[in-house]
Amino acid sequence: MPSRAPLQRKIHGLDCVEEVSMLKRELLPLVEDESRLTFDLLRAKLTIDVNGTSRSTEEIDAAIQRTGLRFEPWVDSSPSDEPVSFWQKHRRAILTAVSGLCGVTGWMLQTFYGRSDNVAEELAQSSELGISPIAATIYLIGIISGLILVLPKAWRSLVSLRPDMNLLMSVAVVGAIAIGEWFEASTVAFLFSLSLLLESWSIGRARRAISALMQWTPPVARLVSESGDVLETPPDEIAIGSTLQVRPGDKVPLDGVVLSGASDIDQSPITGESVPVEKEVGDTVYAGTINGDGVLTMQTTKTSDDSTLARIIRMVSEAGSKRANAEQWVEKFAAIYTPIVFASALLVMLVPPLLFAASWDDWIYRSLVLLVIACPCALVISTPVSVISALTSAARHGVLIKGGVFIELPAALDAIAFDKTGTLTHGEPAVSEIVLGIDGSDVPVLDEQAFLSLAASIASQSSHPLSLAIVDYARESDVQTTTATNVVAIPGKGTTAMVDGRLIWMGSERLMKDQSISCSRTKGLLNEATFRDHSVVIVGDSERVLGIVLLRDPVRSIAHGVIARLRESGINHISMLTGDHDAAAQRVAEQAGIDDVHSQLLPEDKVEVIGLMVEEYGNVAMVGDGVNDAPALAIATLGIAMGGSGSDAAIETADITLMSDDLNLLPWLRDHSVRTLLIIRQNIIFALSIKFIFVLLTFLGYASLWAAIAADTGASLLVIFNALRLLQTRSTNG
User: Fold this and answer.
1) Could you give the CA distance from residue 490 to residue 508 in angstroms, rounded to a whole number?
2) How many other β-carbons are positioned within 10 Å of the β-carbon of residue 129?
3) Is residue 75 part of a domain?
4) pLDDT by residue (tens digit) across 255-268?
5) What is the spatial distance between Cα 209 and Cα 400, in angstroms, rounded to a whole number?
6) Quick check: 294 and 261 in contact, CB under 8 A?
7) Using an 8 Å Cβ cutoff, are 144 and 164 in contact?
8) pLDDT value, residue 633
9) Is the pTM of this model over 0.70?
10) CATH number of the domain that 232 lies in?
11) Torsion from C-alpha of 400, 404, 408, 410, nearest 10 degrees
C-alpha cells in the first residue's frame, strides 16, 4: 500500500473537549487507533493519520460531517487571524444574554401580572397551560436562545444512541415544559448556556495567552543586500545566511547570530528571563525578542517556520492532543456515567408511580432534577481547563511542555539524572587560575597583569574556545592587549607570534616539548591532580616557561541550591552522568551536592544507566543539553532539555524544554506539576461532591430544577476559576 500524507482539516468551533469527543466518536471506528488523531485546539486544526489504512478521504470527511461541525481543508498559508464577523465572535454571549433577559421578563409577567384581576385574566384566559400566551412566548424565546447551539448536538446524540450532557439538558428542559414548569425550563436553558459560555471564555483566555506569541514576530525584516541597501522584506521570504539589520526597539525577525554591534535584548517572550541580556558579536538572538538601544547586524540561522518562536507555538499547539491521565480518566468516566444517569432518571420517573401509586407529576419532576444535577458539565471541563492553564503558565515562565501527559510526570518523579557539561556547568571554559614563576627562576619574569596581557594578545588572534576564555578574562580584568604579529597556528599544539619584538609561544604540553628550554619543573606540575582537572595553556619565550593558564568549565553558581531544593521536594536519588574523566566529574558533583556519579560514559552507556535507574527507582527524569544526551532523554520517563544552550536533537527528543539555562526552573517545574495535580483533584472531588449531595436531596424531595442547574453552573464557575489560578505568575527562585 503506497504511503499517504496525513489529512488536515480546519474545524470551525473546535474549542473544547466536547467537540473533540464528538469527532472521536465518529472517526475512531474508521482509523481504529486514537493516536492517529491529533487535535490542535489553538488553531482549530484536526490531523488524521490515514497511512496504512484503506479509508478514503471521502469517508473521513463524511464522518466529520456527521458531527455537524463545519470544516474545510487546512491551508498552511492561510492567516491564523482570519476575520470573523461580530455575530460569529459574540453569538454565544448574545444568545445567553437574550436567554437570561427573556427568563426574567417571563417570570415578571407570570408573577406580577398574576396579581392584577383584570390584566392577568385577560392574558391567561386563552391559555390551557396555566400561563399567559405572552409569558409562554417570551419563555420560549429565552429557552430557544439558550439551547439553539445545543439542540443540534443533542439530536445527534439521540440518533446515535450516545447520550451526552447536551441531551441531558435538552430532555430536562422539554420535560419541564411538558409538566408546566416554564420558569424552571427557562432557568435551566439560561444557566446551561451560561456554563458553556464560561467554558468557552476560560479556554479562550488560556489560548490567547499562547497565541499572543504569534504577534511577537514583526511583519517585515530589514534585509541588507550585497550592495549594502536595506530592503524591508517579510520574514518568511528570507533565506538562511541572510544579513539583517535590527534597529533599537525593533523586534528580532528571525533566529541568528550577531555580526556587528552590541545591545541589550529583552528575551522574556522566549526564555522567560525578566532582565534584558547583553548581546555582542557571535551571540545568538531569537525571533520575537526585542532589541534595546543598540543597532545590530545579524546573520540568520533559521527560516521563519523553524525559528525558536515558531517551534514554541507549534509545540504548544500540538500539546493539547497529548492529554493528561486525569483528562483521559474523566472522559472515560463521563462516557459510562451519562448513560447510567439516563437509566436512573427513567427508573426514578417510572418505578414509584407504577409500583407505589405515587404522583406522576412529582416523580417526573424529580427525574428531571436528577438529569440536570447529574449532568457532568463541571466534571468534564474541570481537567482540560486546568491542563491548558498549566501549559500556558509554564510557557510564560520559559518552560515548554509538549503535552498534558507530561505536566503530571514532574510531580511523580522518583529520581533525576543530570548531564554535567552545559547542564550543571556553563558548558564553556573559563580561567580559574594563573600560575607564574615555574621554570628558570623563583621570581616571576612577569607580573600577572603583564603575563595576562601577553597571553591575551596572542589569544585574540584565535577562535579556539580556550583562547576566547583568556581574552574574556583579560577584558574582565581591565588588562590592555598589544598587537601580535607573525602569528602562526600549529595544528593540535598552539600558536607562536611576535609580541613587542619577542617571539612568544602559547599552547599545549606538546608545543612546550618542541621548545629548546628546560621545563622539567613544569612537567612535574602537569602531572599533579590539580592540573589534570584543568585545561592547561602554557606560555613561554625562547628561554623559559613564563606561566600557565588553568581553565575549566565552572559549575553553575545555583546548582547546589537547586539540587537541595529538589531533594526537599521529595526526590531522594539524584545522579550525574558524564563522558568526562573521574577527577573532573567528582569535582563538579561535590560542588553541586550530588553523591552518585557516573563518569567516562559514551552515549550508549548513558542509555544503559538510565535504563537501570528506571528499573530500580521507577519514574526517572534525564536533564541534558547535547546531541549525545538525546538517546538518554528518549529512554527516560521524562526527558528535560536545557534549551538555551541545548542542541536541536536534545530539544526535539525531550518532553519538556527549558528555554533558558536557569536551573531554578527545575524545582519550579516540580512545584508547578504538584500544584496542577492538586487543583485537578480539588476540581474533580468538588464536582462529584456537589452531584452526590444534590442526588440525595432529589430523592428526599428537597431539590428543584433551578436549584440543580444553579448548583451545576456554580460548580462549573468555581472549578474554572480554580483552574485559572494556575495562570498566576510565581517566582522560579523558590
Assistant:
1) 10
2) 12
3) no
4) 999 999 988 888 76
5) 14
6) yes
7) no
8) 86
9) no
10) 2.70.150.10
11) -20
Closest CA to 416 of 554, 588, 634, 563: 563
For residues 678 and 422, the answer to whether their CB atoms sit within 8 Å is no
Look at residues 546, 548, 516 and name the one whose alpha carbon lies nearest to residue 530: 548
Q: Has residue 151 been placed in a domain?
A: yes
List pLDDT tens digits, range 149-202.
888 888 888 887 777 778 877 887 888 788 777 887 888 788 778 877 866 776
Domain containing 373 equals: 86-210+318-388+679-727
Amino acid identity of residue 335, one-letter, is A
* Same domain membership, residue 340 and residue 324: yes
| pLDDT mean over 634-652 | 73
CA distance linking residue 414 with residue 670, whole number of Å: 12
Same domain, 452 and 544: yes
Strand positions, DSSP E, 481-637 = 484-490, 494-499, 502-507, 535-540, 545-552, 573-577, 596-598, 620-624
**What single letter denotes the amino acid at residue 121?**
E
Same domain? For 491 and 525 the reply is: yes
Residue pLDDT, tens place only, 17-72: 667 778 888 898 888 888 788 877 666 788 898 888 888 899 999 999 888 888 99
Q: Is 333 exposed, middle or buried (0-12, 13-18, 19+ CB in 10 A)?
A: middle
Which residues are CB-contacts of 620 (< 8 A; sequence separation ≥ 6)? 413, 414, 415, 416, 417, 610, 613, 614, 636, 637, 638
Question: How many folded domains does the chain comprise?
Answer: 5
Q: Is residue 267 part of a domain?
A: yes
Give residue 580's pLDDT. 75
Percent of the chain predicted with pLDDT > 70: 84
- Mean pLDDT of the 353-373 span: 84
Running DSSP on this structure, what letter comes out for residue 422?
A: I
In degrees and rounded to multiples of 5, residue 416 shows phi and psi of -135, 135
Q: Which of 209, 41, 204 is nearest to 728 (CA)?
A: 209
Domain assignment present for residue 72? The answer is no
Q: Are 441 and 548 members of one domain?
A: yes
What is the signed CA dihedral for 560, 562, 567, 573, rounded to 10 degrees?
-70
Between 575 and 628, the higher pLDDT residue: 575
Residue 331 shares a structural domain with residue 358: yes
- Phi and psi (nearest 5°) for 367? -65, -35
Q: What share of the chain is helix, strand, coil (3-state, %, to 5)?
A: 55, 15, 30
Task: Give the side-chain half-sphere CA count within 13 A for 216.
Answer: 25
Minimal CA–CA distance to 31: which of 59, 5, 70? 59
Query: Both ends of the chain: CA-CA distance in Å?
Result: 55
Among this protein's residues, is 442 annotated catalytic? no
Q: Which of 40, 164, 419, 580 is catalytic?
A: 419
Longest alpha-carbon distance in the chain: 125
